[in-house]
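Notebook B, p. 112. Complex prediction, attempt 2.
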Amino acid sequence: MDELTVKNITKKYSKNAAPALKNFDYAFSNGVYGLLGPNGAGKSTLMNIIVGNLAASEGEVFYRGADIRTLGEAYRSILGYMPQQQQLYEGFTIKRFLYYFAALKGLSKKEANERIAELLHVVGLYEFADRHLKTLSGGMKQRVLLAQALLNDPEVLILDEPTAGLDPRERMNIRNYIYSIAEKKTILIATHVISDVEQIAKEVIFLRSGEIVLSGTPEQVAQEIGPFIWEVDVLKEDYRRVNEMYPSNRVAGERDGLVSVKVISEKRPELPEVRSAAVGLEDVYMYLYPNERR
Ligand code: ADP
Ligand code: MG
């Protein structure tokens, strides 16, 4: 069953500006959805509209069939939102910040005690609970914001670049945790870090200039781009030449003096013994956003 339906959303921030989001249409059920795209693609705009912070110029968002504008508090109580920017409440300690939000979300004192202790363990901040937010690293703040979003055990969880500033282990911990709770929740993760969603997303949505350019299961989108991804083994000293001929490439490995190169090209590259290659989301991203190549 669809939990969240985004119906034909268009957002223009001003009359003459190009729309930040154009006819965005998507149905979300339980599971993890990756919202991918470079800066400016419209990811945060979409999230702000879904959580009700921003009014769309056109279109509606439905939660279980009801327009979110008619739901008010009932919608907020099933919603968790981790915004992209992190400032605010710098003078609060982690604990005070979380208790404050727990109260806003209507948790009883007892519920808050249990939930906050649990979440502080989950995000690895238990021993830092009395530190002030202004003294925390970016990664720690990011984890406090994630804990905040999870306080009410939300059914719909909206995470805007949740792993920005995290180190690889923190990233993995957060990813694993999100996966562990995803079965009974609808989780939308905006990111430009493919590895955040590669293994855990049920579906991925690639946005460019406010429009969906490709979406589906990771397998489906990989299959779609498959015909344009090639692999070739060249002598190490020849790599520079390949790189000049096909700037859209990446080194995929090295063995016995040979370099494996993945080349993105709509036409079969004119290189000896070129073969088609296994495709990952990283390749899909490189294919879809050619302006970012090199
Ligand atoms: P992303 O999160 O993918 O980086 P955003 O949703 O933040 O993308 O931005 C999409 C587009 O909307 C960009 O062109 C951005 O400059 C513009 N935009 C975002 N927020 C505002 C705003 N408050 N006022 C005007 N334009 C905005
Ligand atoms: Mg953003």
